[in-house]
Structure formats: C-alpha cells, structure tokens
Specification:
Number of strands of chain A: 1
Helix content of chain A: 10-25%
Largest interface: A-B, 32 and 54 residues
Radius of gyration of chain A: 19 Å
Largest sheet of chain A: none
Strand order of the largest sheet of chain B: 11-10-9-8-7-6-12-13-14-15
Strand content of chain A: under 5%
Shape of chain A: rod-shaped
Structural class of chain B: alpha/beta
Helix content of chain B: 25-40%
Number of strands of chain B: 15
Mean pLDDT of chain A: 71
Oligomer: heterodimer
Structural class of chain A: mainly alpha
Number of helices of chain A: 1
Radius of gyration of chain B: 24 Å
Mean pLDDT of chain B: 91
Low-confidence stretches of chain A: 32-38
Distance between the termini of chain B: 43 Å
Order of helices and strands of chain A: EH
Low-confidence stretches of chain B: none
Strand content of chain B: 5-15%
Chain lengths: 45, 500
C-alpha cells in the first residue's frame, strides 16, 4: 500500500455526515435532557 | 480521554484486504480507511460490544503488534465523523438515546398508514398460518364475519380523528396508503365491501393508494379494480413450484391452489399492478426454489418490470411448525447465495438482505444519507389496522383479540385509543438495554416485536430480536461496495410489505 495514502479517509456516502451535521439535522438542541421531551404518544381512553 | 465510539461498525472488504470500511451507527457515515487506521480506532475500544440476547456476534479479529497513530488530520476527521469520541461510554449512550428519540419523534409524526382487514376468514388452510386457529377452532367462529358498510363509515369517522391527532392540517391534500389484509381480504364475496372502502377513501379527499396482501386465489373477481390507479400493489405467496406449493397452500378439502394463483398473477401483471411474489421458506422446501425460478421464467413473469419475487423464512408461529425445520434470515441468505452460484435462474428470487445491499449501494453511488430508524416497523409508529369490529391494532400479527387492541371506534364514531397504543408506539431501540448499546441498532430497529416477545416467557416485546443482523449487515455492506466498484446498476427488485 502506498505509504502516503495510509492515513487517507475516503468518504463513501454524503460528505457532511458528521456529529455536527447530525445535531443540526435533528435539531438536537431542542431535545430535553432525558431525550424524551418532544415525544407525544396518543391515548384517548 | 479519546476513545473509539461504541457505535463503530467495522466491515471487511473481501477484495481489498488492506482496507476496512468504517460505518458509524448514528452519524450515518461510511468511510474507507486503511487497515492500519482501523486498527488504531479499534485499539481505542473501551469494551467489547454486549452480547445479544439471542445468537452471537461474529468475533472481531485480534489486533496484532503495535498500532501506529495516524496523522493529526486523520484523527480530526475520525472525531468529526463520530468514530473517535471524548464522551464517556455512559455519556455516548445517553447521546445515542437522544438521537434515537429524535428520530422516533419524527417517525411517529408522519402521516398514518391504514390497513383494513375486511374479514379474518380465508379460503386456504396453510398449516403454518399464524391465524390457523381462527378457522379451525369453533371458538373463534365469531371472528369470521365480513365488515359491514356501516362499520366502514364508523372507521372513516375514526380516521378523521386520528389525522387530527397526527396534526395533519389539511387532510384533503394528503396521500393515504391503504392496505388490505386478512384472513384473505380479496375473496370474491368481499368485493362489495372492498369497493366501498376504496370509495370512502377517495371521498374524504386527498389521494389514496391501495395495496393488498392476498393469496391471489380469487383475484379474477377484482380485475377492474387492479392497476396503477386502483389496487396498485399486490403481495402474493407461492411456496414453491406447483407440486410443493399444492402441498402447503391448500383449500379446506386439501386441494392445491397453484394454477389459480398463477393465472391471477399474470392477470394482475397485465393490469399494471406491482406484483411481489413471496416465498415462505424453511428447510423442507428451500431446495425447490430453483424449480420455482424455472416456473417463473416459463410463465414469463420475470420479463415484467412490475414483477418481483422474494423469500422470507417461516417462523414457528403455531404448534404445527417445528422450530428445527425453520431457517433464520441469515441462514436463508447464505443458502440462497450458494444456490445462485450453481443456478443462475435464482437471480430472479431475491434474498432477505438484497434490499439492504441495494440500498447501501445507492448510498455510495448517489452520495446520500442512510435511513436510520428508531423502530423495526410501522407497528411502532404510524400503522393502524382496522377489523370488522371497529377494533384497531398496531401489528397484523397481533389481531383478532379485543384484549390486545390499541383502540377502537365506538358505534357513535368516536375514536378511543388505549394505553396499549402507547405501549406499541413506544418500543424503540432505546427501550431495552441491549439495543441501546448496539452499534447496529439504528439500522436494524431492534427486530420484530412479535418474534422478540415470542422468545420470552412473559410475552415481553421490550426485548430485541437480532436474527443474525450484525453478520447480515456487514455482508450486505461489503457486497454493496463490490457492486459499486463494479458499476452494478441493475438491481434485484425487492418489494416486501413486512419482514416477518
């Protein structure tokens, strides 16, 4: 293997899939600390 | 301290032994790295992944010798993509739980999907059917009645209230997916009520798309209702070539059903419906699949764009099915892969994981995002199944018993959802400790709840059902990568309505 490429990291899917992008995409800042703040399960009885 | 994420997946690439494909379990990143970089990441693993409750992970290869540290730039990229983290094991698990919760919040906010079960009755008596008791035990006779028109009216009143709960602002402008399931939904005698359900679905506005899981024996009665603008998708089961099928998919008098179904498949394809033929496979009929592939080719179905065929392992759902005769999805996948090597006709029958391979290949070719999921299927998010009694269920494998319904529509047309709705909709990958710590969880969704509950003594759905998923995932991703390198564009068509 070419030594100059030994540290190369080749992204195979979307290039912006990283932790920061995940937080933006999922709007994680809007989630309550227990992670359940936004969930609504319906029960009408 | 910097450490390897607990959600890293390491995929060996058979054609490139000097490289490893890193996949991250919640950022959705897929990266090819040198084996040396992968070894560096693995050397920072803090703990071995937890053992699944059922089955076993395949062992990770040992790390030999000293591991060289990659460049600062490479380490930064690994951190950015999630493979290396400064979070503690517990903090990362909490973070994972937040990500999964957010994904689930989005999932349950989607438009509802509806399934109508016009009747629990069926004209076939397949021995492995999970509803077998309904037709053979007189105590369930009362279940076999057909849905009445006034019940359909009642259900549609309930649908309006459901859509309000899902905060659909303009229900006249949505697309509704409406399925038919049974029993056998498309019996000839059911036609007037099926027609009425379709009429009502269109009358409330928006667009309605219809599909059905049918045995196909009486489909000729529905000819004018089948096609791209009516019932546009059909899943029909064939359990082998004619002789084998006719031993399994039998009428009450023991006679076979292959020829009638075959004629109706051709008719439905000619009408332009998408027909997905499902084969329920166990150790006793798997060797018949090449003969079935021959039969499919002989009928010319494989030439239709709208035709696909797939396999699904039979599960021991009643006492007539012996566990020793069943195959897991992973065993079935491997057996089919081997069969394809000696029988090219088998290419027309997709393996359980061809869908995953195809999807992953499109990630590579189209550079898009993986579809991460907090749950296994719609039973935990937006699926509502209505029967002839106005009862509502989350999963079609768990119907016909008012004690397990998630709600019902009262005679006055009022929707009532029970605490069981909350129970079904809250099963996610973070509601059991194994999935919470599993690197594959957001790809697998925790496995089928019915199969998971079936393996517990107290029918507890809040467990996992692994079904060899770790090995299946790595195999599918490696294959997708090879296909991508080889420029494979034609894909095995895979359309399935339920993985069970």
């Amino acid at each position: 293997m070419d030594e100059s490429k030994v540290d190369e990291i080749v992204s195979l899917n979307a290039h912006d899939l990283d932790v920061e992008e995940l937080e933006n995409r999922l709007e994680l800042s809007a989630v309550t600390p227990d992670g359940k703040g936004c969930l609504v399960y319906w029960e009408t009885e | 301290m910097l450490r390897a994420s607990n959600y890293n997946i390491y995929v060996d690439l058979p054609q490139e032994p000097e490289h490893i494909l890193l996949v991250h379990g919640f950022t959705g990143a897929y990266d090819k790295v040198s084996r040396r970089v992968a070894s560096y990441v693995r050397s920072l693993e803090k703990r071995h992944p937890p053992r699944p409750l059922f089955g076993a992970w395949s062992p990770e290869p040992p790390i030999n010798g000293n591991v060289a540290e990659p460049s600062t730039r490479a380490i930064d990229t690994l951190k950015k993509r999630g493979y290396l983290t400064l979070l503690s094991v517990e903090q990362e698990e909490e973070y994972f739980a937040i990500v999964a919760s957010k994904l689930h919040e989005r999932s349950i906010a989607q438009n509802p999907n509806y399934i109508f079960m016009p009747t629990y009755d069926c004209n076939l008596r397949c021995s492995y059917c999970f509803q077998d008791h309904m037709r053979t035990d007189p105590k369930y006779q009362h279940l076999l009645r057909l849905t009445r028109k006034r019940m359909v009216d009642r259900i549609f009143k309930g649908i309006g209230q459901l859509e309000a709960l899902h905060t659909i602002a303009d229900s006249s402008n949505i697309v509704r997916n409406i399925g038919f399931f049974g029993g056998e939904p498309l019996l000839a005698e059911n036609k007037p009520i099926v027609k009425y359900i379709m009429y009502k679905a269109r009358a409330i506005g928006g667009e309605a798309r219809f599909w059905a899981v049918t045995n196909g024996t009486e489909l000729e009665a529905y000819k004018e209702m089948i096609g791209p603008s009516d019932i546009q998708q059909l899943q029909i089961t064939l359990d082998g070539p004619p002789r084998e099928h006719d031993k399994r998919r039998i009428y009450a008098d023991g006679s076979g059903s292959f020829e009638r179904i075959a004629c109706n498949i051709t008719m439905a394809l000619d009408c332009g419906a998408r027909v997905s033929v499902r084969m329920n496979v166990d150790k006793l009929n798997i060797d018949q699949l090449p003969t079935l592939a021959e039969a499919i080719i002989e009928k010319g179905w494989d030439k239709y764009e709208n035709f696909s065929a797939y396999t699904s392992p039979i599960h021991a759902a009643n006492e007539k099915t012996e566990v020793r005769t069943t195959l897991s999805s992973w065993e079935l996948d491997k057996r089919l892969t081997k069969m394809r090597l000696t029988n090219p006709d088998m290419r027309i029958i997709s393996r359980p994981d061809d869908g995953l391979t195809n999807f992953t290949r499109t990630l590579f070719t189209q550079k898009n995002e993986p579809s991460l999921r907090s749950t296994f299927c719609g039973a935990h998010s937006t699926m509502y199944i209505f029967d002839a009694f106005g009862d509502i269920y989350a999963c079609w494998e768990k119907t016909g018993d008012a004690r397990i319904r998630i709600g019902h529509v009262t005679p006055a047309g009022k929707l009532e959802l029970s605490p069981l709705n909350v129970k079904w909709r809250s099963r996610t990958v973070i509601t059991n400790p194994i999935c919470r710590q599993c690197r594959y969880a957001l790809y697998c969704g925790g496995g089928c709840a019915v199969l998971a509950a079936g393996r517990t003594s107290d029918d507890n759905m809040f467990t996992n059902y692994c079904d060899g998923y770790a090995a299946r995932f790595r195999s599918a991703v490696a294959k997708a990568y090879v296909d991508h390198l080889n420029g494979v564009t034609t894909e095995v068509k895979t359309e399935r309505l339920c993985d069970l």
